[in-house]
Hints:
Helix content: 25-40%
Strand content: 25-35%
Structural class: alpha+beta
Amino acid sequence: MISGPSQPGRAIAPHGDPAPASPAAGDREVIREVAERCAPAGLLPRLRQFHQLHDDVDILRREGTWQATIYASSSVRTVVRWELHELLDFLDQWSQAGSAAGGA
């Protein structure tokens, strides 16, 4: 982590802007509980498994779509799909590609 003089301990993105912060642990638990309540019953085990394996990704339902927010050390990526199974399919591919490259 690179610290800036005005904000000690806060990560700085390579271009100098502060890296977006991921939610606090308690907030993350609430986000996951809400997503699990909105998930179709048939996809709940898959969603829970993904949550267990990927602490750096939040999945939520927003305005009729499913959204994943992926927190990296210097950036945040948001992925949106209409259906949860489509989002989980994408995230599985993303995760496998990251593992093949040496880390997700």
